[in-house]
Amino acid sequence: MKLTFSLLFILFQVTLSFSQNIDMYLGTFTDGKSEGIYKLQFDTIQGTLSDSKLITKAESPSFLAFSPNRNYLYATCREGDGIVSAFRIKNDNYLQLINSVDSHGASPCHVAVNSEGTKLVVSNYGGGTIALYDINSDGSLTEALQVFKQSTDEAVSHAHSAQFIDNHLFVADLGRNSVFKYQKNDIGDGYKLKTESIVSMQPNAGPRHFTVTKDHKFFYIINELNSSITVAKHTNKGFKLVEHISTLDDDFKGESYCADIHLSPDEQFLYGSNRGENSIVVFKRHHTTGKLKKIQNISVEGDWPRNFTIDPTGNFLLVGNRRTNNISIFNINKKNGKLKFSNSFNAPSPVCLLF
Fold first, then answer.
1. Which GO terms describe its biological process (predicted)?
2. pLDDT score of 7
3. Which of 81, 151, 183, 258 has the highest count of CB atoms within 10 angstroms of its CB?
């Protein structure tokens, strides 16, 4: 018996020795107990979170993005009419505010940085605008270079996310029910509108976020209002609609609203979050056609899943459940893409998870 206990203790120590903790940053809404941006430790072996620490106070820093060199962090905040803040990541793991600039629209909800770390774009849901900024060498932001107003007399814009892809800027606009494409100017640093809709969307779909394959061939757009994913293929002649597919279980009958979307690192599987059904949907992806096959809808073990992320090992998926103040952690079966609930960690109003 003593030998058995000794062996178990040795095995436990060996397991601990191979554990690796990495930083995870958490953006929140501060209308409850949260005070700003937090940093947590994630164990990539055990799949557990720990050591939650407030690293800067801010008003509802609801979306976060790193600079490519990870020396700086950018956050959309709801201070005043909306701002975007630049922070320096210090050696003591706290954030030092560099500067804040006007987001040029109410309720900024998404921020992205280009691959060179020279440009930043903010999406303003309430104002329906997209604001573009230069990033200085010290990580600070200039005042806005351009502000795109996408509302028309017929439809009010609700810009929800934007990404730099090659020399283009793509914008998911829930209010206009479109994914806009802006093209980089031949002269100067600005962008100009190329097309107001890369593909035809279903009525009242409400594009929210999108993810793109590494070769930029397939776009997967998650639609908040009708709980669907639109698949589009990039061709030499523009974009071609592949399909629209529901994110909900066939037996679900209530109201639900999609939030976030991510591809697995090997691009074999696609994941999306459903608020209302309170689930993560899992699709098997066909590499050649881009089409999706739904294989799982699994409970998030919480209420109102907003943003979620896959850890750098590709072994775990973490979901921020805003209304139940918890982060649910799932094991990913890399062979079939399916999820299995592992554990939960308490966190105040989690809405953005960033490794």
1. glucose metabolic process
2. 54
3. 258
